[in-house]
């Protein structure tokens, strides 16, 4: 038994995924592999026979897909959803396989499976050839840095094992793959149902002299991509059981480290050296990529979760701006300028796409212009963060070069990204310290600067109330400025339209201007529809907590439409104005505004007095 355990430990581990279009046979392929590798118990095999006879999809044969499909409801629908991870082994190697669904709406699941895979099996139905999902998955595999790809031309039994069909598909894919670059491709003709070229060679395809799928999986090179890179240890946990010990826990994402090596801590740049390396098996002198360790340093340093301990002579970059490929995974499009949460390892910062350079056309891998990134699309973007992060390029380090994007309101993962490089402009632009600050300017004016953000539908009375309030404040000697949505579009924002993407950029610019005015010590009133909660939250986060007062001018749509001072609602109803808030574009009302004005119940003068009284109560005036 001890010998067998030693042999098991010596086996390499290959993580791979199956992907491709719908009904290309992914679950059948994995199920048949499990069966061939004797990974199916007698009870499960008996159940497989009965289920295949009762309702399997393989006719008189065993329906191997039932060994993989997870839930009875999924089986009854004939689809696989989510990512199912399966574990099996042969005498030569251990495997973890991710079975990912082929449906377009589950592309995010495929990307999840690809994120930690070393190899991808891309299935193609021999009858159908290359599909758009085949190409989409190929691009994602390439972007995810997977180095090995198997082009598994399945269901060859349904085309009479015709070599011409196989050769045509391989030729077509080779032309497409030239533009991808990344992977080494092994093409294999097979029948997952009948087992042809799966674990044994097919007599029906004696024209193929390549390996079976199992032979290829057992023989593919498993050398980790990051073994030779510079040492990187992202800190997952600071282990401090008592005052006598402080250890930094994590998994080496690249390179190796020895006791005594000089290290640099990112992002602070502090220097130290490795004092000890601890593993689950005890203390060691050296650790390499992929190992989970706890290290101690020769000096006390202020290190926390999210910091990176790295080679002193080759530290990772630190930046708050970089270029990256982004795979968008949400039904609502990515809008440049919209604030998201970016999570890179244990690091978490606010981020926004500042520029969408192009959208990738999966059909021919060409680059198309675009203002937004739609569901399942991949784009090349510039991103700006509110704090610098420690990173590597994805090409050099998949762990420290990849990130996810999370919606700040729903906490839902909406995108995944791969960093191409840091933007040099971030290194060349530094904050210039000034002797006169916001407090000095505010003291001179005798007021507390803040943003009064008036939001509501068109015609709700925002600008009227803000204008009356400014007159009231000016009469009291206040130093103010009123930013009105229409007025700003004559100058600063004259290049913007009214699409969702343009509305986000409209508010982003005004938020930046408002922030500068607060820094100048002013009371700035912002009168914008600002229909999206996320952009109003972005504006709030740009200033200190008590410097933002959201004023919701809550006027019913029918009242706004009855006023229609500018005739905009009439045009919107007639279809002459597109993307009009309240008609064919949504308005997201504030959930907890500081001031809630029921605008249909009082006059504008009375409402302005309500706001003024609240400012007095808050000590702003």
Helix content class: 25-40%
Quote the CATH topology of the largest domain.
Rossmann fold
CATH architectural group of the largest domain: 3-Layer(aba) Sandwich
Query: How far is the first residue's CA from the last residue's CA?
Result: 81 Å
**Percentage of residues in DSSP E strands:** 25-35%
Sheet/helix structural class: alpha/beta
Integer count of domains:
4
What ranges have pLDDT less than 50 throughout 5 or more consecutive residues? 1-9, 70-81
Instruction: Supply the CATH class of the largest domain.
Output: Alpha Beta
The best one-word shape is globular
Q: Tags for this entry?
A:
17 helices; eight-stranded antiparallel sheet; Elongation Factor Tu (Ef-tu), domain 3; 621 residues; disordered N terminus; alpha/beta; Rossmann fold; six-stranded mixed sheet
Topology:
Elements: H1 2-10, E1 12-20, H2 26-36, H3 42-55, H4 72-77, E2 84-89, E3 93-99, H5 107-114, E4 119-125, H6 132-143, E5 148-154, H7 163-177, E6 184-189, H8 213-219, E7 232-234, E8 237-242, E9 245-251, E10 256-258, E11 262-266, E12 271-279, E13 282-284, E14 286-288, E15 292-297, E16 308-311, E17 318-328, E18 340-344, E19 347-360, E20 367-368, E21 378-390, E22 402-406, E23 413-422, H9 425-428, H10 438-445, E24 450-455, H11 462-475, E25 480-484, H12 485-488, H13 500-519, E26 523-527, H14 533-541, E27 548-554, H15 557-563, H16 568-573, E28 595-598, H17 604-617
Helix pairs in contact: 11-17, 13-14
